[in-house]
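step=encode ok
step=design start
structure_in=
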């Protein structure tokens, strides 16, 4: 009996050992993502700068030597290789890449499939008989920014979470730094939103006004009503919308609860500030003006402008016009010098204003480094925009929907605010390709 028991125990131990070894071997032989790194070139590229604006990632970087090959930026894993549209150039003994000159036109993050990828520079080389002998360079991070985390816009009630992380692989013979993308389906956390809507003015600041048939109309009432109607339209399309205000109150600009801070606090991908225009005297024209960030493609702005123009037409204002109904107003060198003098004469420290910085704070300060924000807390009077230096921000727009002092525009507003919300909503939905 004792012998049988011993035999069984020995047998069980043996089975255990064999099973253990086979799983170990299996694990060893199954290729891992990180194994790809072991076959890459010895030296590497380095990210020098990167930013996320709205739904797009932009990036630039270099390697300390000249490579004259067929270079491309790729995201690669064991099954797939995604080529990222990019440009390469040789300068001063370096080879450098960049994704896009336009802030909102880099790698479209919402278009990436789930999975884990490593970011490489690929030098495509075809050997004899078309055998692929391409070389891969890993990419490390020399920018001042650390890892990023991003949630895609809600579609069909789902989101992807994207993490770009900077890692190091240390093995017996290799030591390599690399950049990894991890993309998985994950529900939007409670405090993160797709879009922020800001109803301009409110409370002790009624904005502009005009009187029609003996009744005085105030901008702040219309901006709020339109924003609330738009909130419902976008939510009905499945988007998660954050409002800067939902009642007749005024808000600070930059401090906690500030209009320009909220869109960043909730990590929204877009921010729309809603206003109505006015000018001195009675206008000879009305129409829509969509104000935009700098250095962008105007696809979204154009869609909103076209849509609102079906109600009130395009503004005929010639200055700062980029396209029909699309405007970009920014600081030039003269204005910067003047602002510097004005601030100094008022006992304030001049801001570091860069040429091309949008004049409207709801665009400039919401967009962080992408829109050359500068409210860095040096003057107590203006406070601090704690996101002025952020490289991951919403893509911000300011909509001057119509002129309150152009009679037919005001008539349109008075007769139907809902139509303006619908027009903006259909422009946004068309751009995002959601219904
Ligand atoms: Zn306004």
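sequence_out=
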């Amino acid at each position: 009996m004792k012998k049988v028991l011993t035999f069984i125990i020995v047998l069980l131990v043996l089975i255990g050992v064999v099973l253990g070894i086979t799983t170990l071997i299996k694990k060893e032989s199954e290729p891992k993502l990180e194994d790809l790194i072991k076959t890459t070139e010895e030296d590497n590229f380095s990210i020098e700068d990167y930013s996320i604006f709205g739904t797009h990632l932009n990036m630039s970087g270099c390697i300390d030597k000249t490579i004259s090959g067929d270079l491309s930026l790729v995201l690669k894993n064991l099954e797939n290789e995604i080529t990222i549209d990019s440009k390469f150039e040789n300068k001063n003994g370096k080879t450098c890449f960049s994704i896009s000159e336009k802030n909102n036109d880099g790698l479209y993050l919402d278009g990436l499939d789930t999975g884990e990828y490593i970011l490489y520079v690929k030098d495509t080389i075809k050997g004899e008989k078309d055998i692929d002998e391409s070389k891969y360079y890993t990419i490390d991070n020399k920018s001042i920014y650390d890892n990023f985390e991003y949630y895609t816009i809600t579609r069909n009630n789902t989101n992807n979470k994207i993490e770009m992380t900077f890692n190091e692989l240390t093995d017996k013979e290799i030591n390599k730094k690399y950049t990894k993308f991890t993309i998985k389906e994950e529900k939007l956390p409670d405090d993160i939103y797709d879009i922020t809507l800001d109803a301009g003015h409110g409370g002790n600041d009624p904005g502009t006004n005009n009187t029609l048939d003996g009744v005085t109309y105030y901008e702040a009432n219309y901006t709020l009503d339109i924003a609330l109607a738009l909130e419902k339209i976008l939510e009905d399309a499945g988007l998660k919308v954050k409002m800067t205000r939902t009642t007749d109150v005024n808000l600070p600009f930059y401090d906690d609860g500030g209009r320009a801070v909220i869109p960043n606090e909730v990590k929204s991908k877009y921010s729309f500030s809603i206003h109505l225009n006015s000018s001195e005297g009675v206008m000879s024209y009305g129409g829509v003006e969509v104000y935009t960030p700098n250095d962008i493609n105007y696809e979204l702005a154009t869609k909103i402008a076209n849509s609102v123009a079906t109600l009130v037409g395009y503004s005929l204002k010639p200055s700062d016009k980029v396209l029909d109904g699309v405007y970009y107003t920014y600081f030039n060198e003269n204005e910067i010098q003047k602002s510097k003098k004005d601030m100094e004469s008022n006992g304030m420290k001049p801001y570091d204003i860069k040429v091309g910085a949008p004049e409207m704070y709801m665009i400039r300060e919401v967009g962080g480094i992408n829109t050359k924000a500068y409210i860095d807390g040096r003057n107590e009077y203006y406070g601090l925009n704690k996101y002025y230096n952020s490289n991951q921000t919403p893509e911000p727009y300011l909509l001057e929907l119509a002129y309150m002092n152009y009679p037919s525009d005001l008539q349109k507003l008075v007769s139907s605010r809902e139509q303006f919300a619908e027009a903006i909503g259909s422009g946004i939905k068309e751009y995002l390709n959601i219904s």
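step=design ok
step=annotate ok -> The pocket of zinc ion is lined by residues 200-201, 207, 219, 275 (CB under 6 Å).
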